[in-house]
Amino acid sequence: MIALSDGRMRFGDLRTVVEGISGKVLTGTLRDLERDGLVERHVYAEMPPRVEYGLTALGRTLHVPLQALGRWAEEHIEEVLAARETYDART
Question: Is domain 1-60 classified as CATH 1.10.10.10?
Answer without folding.
Answer: yes
